[in-house]
Write a structure and sequence with these properties.
With 168 residues, this protein is an alpha/beta fold. The protein is built from seven helices and five strands, in the order βαβααβαβαβαα.
Length: 168
């Protein structure tokens, strides 16, 4: 009997970037089912509403092969990640790392989660050199200042960013 391995990939995804999508693609090689969890995090003051962020993620995975799309669910969460991971029966939390600066925070979170539930592993996926510097906050800043974000996000996200910051 084979046990299905479920991974959860949490984040704010405000907006989802090509780096996020790279982590999604690579995660599908490691798990049977992937739950992408956009966080309901009012404290961060997201540019896009939860509904918009969920739509953006679903739009971006629409281009994936059908077999991959069928293995992905987009489920928002609020509260502790470890509680959400248990709720979706995940055995793995997947986190993307861009730089050493990400690692310090992420290792603290992974260790705390491991203390709360040692049965759930955290896996870190290093961003490829193409995506190491892409951060949602920087993408928003570039868009806000009228710059071209098309090389950092999908065409759909690019259009949504342009609409958000359209000068009247």
């Amino acid at each position: 009997m084979t046990v299905e391995r479920t991974g959860v990939y949490p984040g704010t995804f405000d907006p989802v970037t090509s780096g996020h999508m790279e982590v999604v693609r690579r995660s599908l090689r490691l798990v049977d089912r992937l739950v992408i969890g956009p966080a309901i995090n009012i404290g961060k003051g997201p540019l896009f509403s939860l509904e918009e962020r969920m739509d953006i993620i679903k739009d971006d995975i629409a281009d994936f092969p059908q077999a991959d799309r069928e293995r992905i669910k987009v489920v928002p969460f609020e509260g502790l990640l470890i509680h959400f991971a248990r709720e979706v029966e995940a055995s793995v939390i997947i986190r993307g790392l861009r730089a050493v600066s990400d690692f310090e925070y992420e290792i603290q979170m992974a260790n705390m989660n491991a203390r709360m539930d040692p049965t759930i592993e955290t896996i870190f996926l290093m961003a490829s050199d193409r995506h190491q510097f892409i951060a949602s906050s920087l993408v928003k800043d570039i868009a806000r200042l009228g710059g071209d974000t098309s090389q950092f996000v999908s065409k759909r996200v690019f259009e949504r960013l342009k609409a958000k910051f359209k000068k009247d």
